[in-house]
Amino acid sequence: MRIMLRTLIFLSAGIGMALTACSETTGGSVTSGAGGMVGTALPCAVDEILELRCRECHAAEPQFGAPMPLSSREDLLALSLDGSTTVADMVVQRMADTDAIMPPPPNTPASKAELAAIESWIADGHPPRPEGEMCQGAGGSGGSGLDCTPDLQIRAMKPFAMTPGAADEQVCFGVEVPASGTKRHITVIAPKIDNSKIIHHILLLSSSTAVSAEPASCALASSEWKLLYAWGPGTPPHKLPPEAGFPIEASQDMHLVLQIHYSNLSMLEDQSDHSGLELCTTTDLREHDADIMALGGIAFSGIAPNAISSLSCSTEIPALLAPFLPLKVFQSWPHMHRTGHRLSTVAKHPGGETSTLADVKNYSFDYQITYPNDVELEAGALMKTTCTWKNDTPQSIGFGERTEDEMCFNFVSYYPRIEAEQWHWLLPAVTATCGPVEVE
Ligand code: HEC
Of 117, 138, 319, 405, which has the fewest Cβ atoms less than 10 A away? Predict the structure, then answer.
């Protein structure tokens, strides 16, 4: 993700007002699930087949005319439409029914082994997923390892097909979460990986305006996009602290953006992917709304050519925020561009003691993940972010949004959300004082 310079200049001119524009554009697919009960998950052997072959339509919120969900164990134990038998029995009938086969053409039919797996689950008496069972790959759904059952699925409307011959592709698309009339909190964000052969990393951002649902190449991002979650192989689901949630407002659509980076270095042919994320949300609101703010800085002009150099940017928690203090920071997302080498953020508390929010010693643009934090910031706390760049080019590099430019940001998740008039989430970085430091 890169930030648009224009908005930052706008901000540094002192007009730090958030832009709020909403439009009615529809987004990618959002499916609400059966709800918050544990023990409703299906064993992976069954769940993965339904996920792969059926939930395009039989999602928790059924799509494309499908009459019922096939998400949870309850869904399968319910009565079939005509009331003659269970949905589970009807499932095996229809999967084998050559006249009215499910999934309908042109979808790939289930294999004999897949049908047999569902038949044997029925013969075993429909057991729930054993505690602790973790589903892999295509079917990593159903709340495994989470303390909740995901009820929102965030992914593109259809699988994304990699451009033939492309080794690397980065796409962005919008997903709309329509206002439901009831405020919700996002409590868990988990990856939902489809094609593990090409998926490289996934970013979830919230936008102040709706973004097109059509996956488009995205070298540029907007400064109106706030990072909620960053996944790379090995990143666990993000469970928000029990006293906070990212808000989905009652009467305001939430505009989400997924940025997905694909890598196909071995040039496998015909690769497509339908990865995304699963969210647990709740109407049982937590004590605080969580939000994001930018630490780091933009006040630098030239990173010396053919050299390693460091810059430190410091910003103090201003008195303006008194009603919201102390702030609790629970996640850091360090962000630089290609020459970024190292990034640290240290908070110096008024009493003199320090807390480290981030210390990434081998920063890589291609592995931008989030780091958990548990740090309290009180009035007067000084946040110092130090960025180190390894500039192998013969040019000096300045701050900016292009790939050739550089950045020095640590986007942190915190609560309670600051709602002051003059506040903008980029302000701490925009107003920071920056200066060169010796490379350690
Ligand atoms: C492309 C969308 C789509 C996919 C994929 C799909 N279905 Fe369906 N399914 C439908 C639609 C539409 C209906 C209702 C019309 C009908 O019965 O043919 C339906 C009906 C059914 C019914 C009848 C329900 C009842 O109680 O009478 C069953 C059972 C079913 N599907 C099972 C499955 C299974 C199992 C899969 C995956 C192996 C699957 N479907 C995949 C669209 C889909």
Answer: 319
Q: Is the CB of 76 under 6 A from ligand 1?
A: no
Nearest-CA residue for ligand 1 atom 29 is: 91
Question: 219-223, 228-232, 387-391, 403-407 — which one is most confidently predicted on average?
Answer: 387-391
Q: How far is the CA of 93 from the centre of ligand 1 (A)?
A: 11
Verify whether ligand 1 is closer than 6 Å to residue 53 (CB atom): yes
**pLDDT attached to residue 37:** 34
Q: For atom 32 of ligand 1, which residue has the closest CA?
A: 91
Q: What pLDDT shows up at residue 364? A: 81
C-beta separation of 235 from 369 below 8 A: yes
Cβ–ligand 1 distance for 66 under 6 Å, the answer yes
Is 56 touching ligand 1 by the criterion CB < 6 Å?
A: yes
Over residues 57-71, the mean pLDDT reads 82
Residue 57 half-sphere exposure toward CB, CA atoms < 13 A: 12
Place of tokens 């360090």: 334
Nearest CA-CA partner of 412 in 348, 328, 352, 313: 328
Q: Alpha-carbon distance 58 to 71, whole Å? A: 7
Give the angle subtended at the CA of 329 by the CAs of 242 and 321, to the nearest 5°. Answer: 110
Q: Give me the pLDDT at residue 142, please.
A: 37
Q: Say how many Å lie between the CA of residue 63 and the centre of ligand 1.
A: 10
pLDDT tens string 338-395: 899 999 999 999 999 999 999 988 788 877 778 889 999 999 999 999 999 999 999 9
57 CB under 6 A from ligand 1? Answer: yes
Cβ–Cβ < 8 Å for 228, 189: yes
Tell me if 405 CB under 6 Å of ligand 1.
no
204 Cβ closer than 6 Å to some ligand 1 atom: no
67-97 residues labelled b (16+ CB within 10 A) or e (exposed): ebbbbbbbbbeeebeeeeeebbebbbebbee
Q: How far apart are CA 334 and CA 407, in angstroms?
A: 10
CA angle, residues 425, 428, 430, in degrees to nearest 5:
95
